[in-house]
Design goal:
Blueprint (H helix, E strand, L loop, with lengths): L8 E6 L14 H9 L3 E7 L5 E9 L4
Antiparallel strand pairs: 1-3, 2-3
């Protein structure tokens, strides 16, 4: 089965920024804008069982190397 290069992705996981208490989320706008400029797109989240977001999952087309 041939794989179309445009359908291959690379992934990155990032922990959401938190305040000092580790319970309150900090505004992630700056970090999200930086990732967007680098070609990353938010693809989903991985959540804790009891609620809250553990990781943000980003993807972008795999670069040709």
């Amino acid at each position: 089965m041939a794989t179309d290069r445009s359908s291959q992705w690379e992934y990155k996981t990032v922990r959401p920024p938190t305040e000092a208490t580790q319970k309150e989320a900090a505004d992630p706008t700056k970090q999200l804008n930086e990732l967007g400029k680098a070609g990353w797109e938010l693809a989903g989240t991985i959540d804790y069982t009891g609620g809250g977001t553990k990781y943000l999952v980003f993807k972008r087309p795999q670069s040709m190397e």
